[in-house]
Amino acid sequence: MLQILRQDLEVKGLISRKIIRCVYFTDKGQELAERIFEECQEWIPEYRRDEDLREWTKESFLLHLPILFIGACGICVRTISPFIEDKLRDSPVLVVDELGLNVISLLSGHMGGANALAKELAHAIGANPVITTASDVNNAFAIDEYARVNGYRISDRKAIKEINGQFIKSNKDFDPKEKFPGVLIKKRLVLGMGCKKGKSFEELKKFINEYYEDEYLRDNLYSIASIDVKAEETGLIKLAMFYGAKIFFYSAEELRAVEGDFTESDFVEKTVGVGNVCERSALLAAGLKGSLMAEKRAKDGITLAEAQRSEENIKSTNREYGHIYVVGLGPGKKDYMTVEAIKAIQNSDIIVGYTVYVDLVRDFSYGKEIFATGMRQEIDRCKACFEFAMEGKNVALVCSGDSGVYGMAAPMYELLPAYPGVEISVVAGVTAALSGAAALGCPINHDFCLISLSDLMTPWSAIERRIRAAIDGDFAMALYNPSSHKRADYLKKAVEIMLDQGASPDRACGYVENIGRKGTKTYTCSLAQLKETQVNMFTTVFVGNSNSYIDEGKLITKRGYKIYE
User: Fold this and answer.
1) Domain 10-132 has CATH 3.40.50.2300
2) What is the pLDDT of residue 156?
């Protein structure tokens, strides 16, 4: 299962979970609900068939729980309308039709996270996310979304419209903390909690209200933290959601590694594997240079400790990263792209790539931020993807063909250790060997190999060894990067090596120009003719094996079947 925005995140034992309340009205709706919660395994379901929804919906809004309606928008609007009060605190509401074709972010798209949830759900079930917030459709920064993802509160709610409007007009990003100083207030408070199994939301809330007022917690609480054996405690999760806070669960091993003097319990040690949960988890969630402000307080099977995040670790403790999709576009025409590739692009916040490749997807990237650079800046683009993901954005790094065939998947994985917590998915594309072969006939219908003639990153001596080995093994070949302005004679050199290695001058060959784009042309020829052929950098060359042949302009490599007895 591919995840989109990691509100449900696992990083080195760290898990954040979210309760989703779901209602359906038909048998098909029930089937879809079951499918949704099977696909979105980190979502904790509370779903039901339609009965009297008024009290259920009222409670959902009081607890600020996300609500998913499976059915018509009209039913949803009539149900939730009496309870809509505050855009900064309303429950996020999603609507999906019972066939699972469209997922609509209906209410609280930014601060409530409905837009992110809609993208995640749409990707999980193969649906179309419907996002209508102005900043998103205009491909602009939204300060309320930024505040939610990065653990800020907004001091002046009236400024949200003005700030987002300026971002839309400027059509570019800038640092809101510099442009609008004082609007964003860092949430520093972290509460570490432990509890006996089955403690309810009401019990937990009553206990912490002995020490903190609700309004104070809404303005200042960054996260609640506990041990991972409590990850199924819905009371804890509801408590975090009520206050608009993140919730983190750590393993006993991680908690034991936290340094400091803590109030230890032999019973707790024996039960969960570490002698103190609340103080250790609070300090761990507070991050580097965080400080323990209030030691363990306990009552009726509940423990509580307070820590504060430091100025230095505000960014480092942001665990909610975006996801990176390394997307193969095929030859560039939408018809040649996989459905998965199109959905990954549509469900991403920002498109990154070489200028030529980004231009290929602009027609169906409406509302997306674009980050494009020229040639020879591949590593800069890769690093930019990670930086965007660490800001909470979902990123599509687009590559021609397949991103794992002479593409950007490898450098992305090589850079990954430097960005712990960010996740990558490689989305397959139709590489030129396949799309070109289809245009030319079936030149690689048996064992074949791909060889790039570019010596920018591979010594020519290595390329020559591979060409000779391919002839010795009687492989059909697809030759990438056969020519450029600086390598005008490389194809001729490659053919000379093949002939020197014993390939027949009559061996069947072919080449395809502008695969899958306007002006696609196919040619067939012999190996001897190929030696004297000039091709451009938008050409893929095919060399058949010893049994390949040309028939009416098609290059055919036999599979080995006995066609005629």
Assistant:
1) no
2) 76
pLDDT at 315: 41
State the pLDDT at residue 502.
Answer: 96
Cα separation, 158 vs 486, in Å, equals 59
Query: Which runs of E-coded beta strand occur in 235-386?
Result: 246-250, 291-299, 302-308, 323-328, 350-354, 369-373
Q: Are 296 and 194 in contact (CB under 8 A)?
A: no
CA distances from 203 to 20, 189, 237 (A): 21, 21, 13
Rounded-to-integer distance, Cα 67 and Cα 140, Å: 26
Q: How far apart are CA 116 and CA 125, in angstroms?
A: 15
The pLDDT assigned to 288 comes to 62
Across the range 105-112, mean pLDDT stands at 90
Structure tokens at 485: 């302005």
CATH architecture of 187-313: 2-Layer Sandwich (3.30)
Q: Which DSSP state fits 561? A: -
- Give pLDDT, residue 501: 96
pLDDT band at 57 (very low <50, low <70, confident <90, very high): very high
The contacts of residue 365 (CB under 8 Å, 6+ apart) are 345, 346, 351
CATH architecture of structural domain 323-430: 3-Layer(aba) Sandwich (3.40)
- Residue 192 CA to its chain's centroid (Å): 29
- Within 8 A by CB and 6+ apart from 533, the residues are 491, 511, 525
For domain 436-556, the question of CATH label 3.30.950.10 is answered with yes
CA distance 190 to 169: 37
Q: State the DSSP code for 401.
A: B
Cα gap 66→295, rounded to integer Å: 33
Q: What are the strands, taking DSSP E only, across 462-528?
A: 476-480, 508-513, 521-526
For 436-473, how does the pLDDT look when each residue is reduced to its tens digit (9 = 90+)? 999 999 999 999 999 999 998 899 999 999 999 999 99
Q: Please report, for the chain, the start and end positions of each structural domain, with discontinuous segments joined by +.
A: 10-132, 187-313, 323-430, 436-556
Dihedral sign for Cα atoms in the order 127, 91, 4, 115: positive
What are the phi and psi torsion angles at 189 (to 5°)? -75, 130
Q: In what order do the strands lie in the sheet with 549-551?
A: 441-442, 554-556, 549-551
pTM: 0.56
> At residue 512, what are phi and psi to the nearest 5 degrees?
-130, 130
> Are 503 and 468 spatial neighbours (Cβ–Cβ below 8 Å)?
no
By CB atoms closer than 10 A (0-12, 13-18, 19+), residue 338 is: middle
Q: What is the pLDDT of residues 6-42, one digit of tens each?
A: 222 232 233 456 889 999 999 999 999 999 988 887 7
Task: Between 438 and 285, name the one with better pLDDT.
Answer: 438
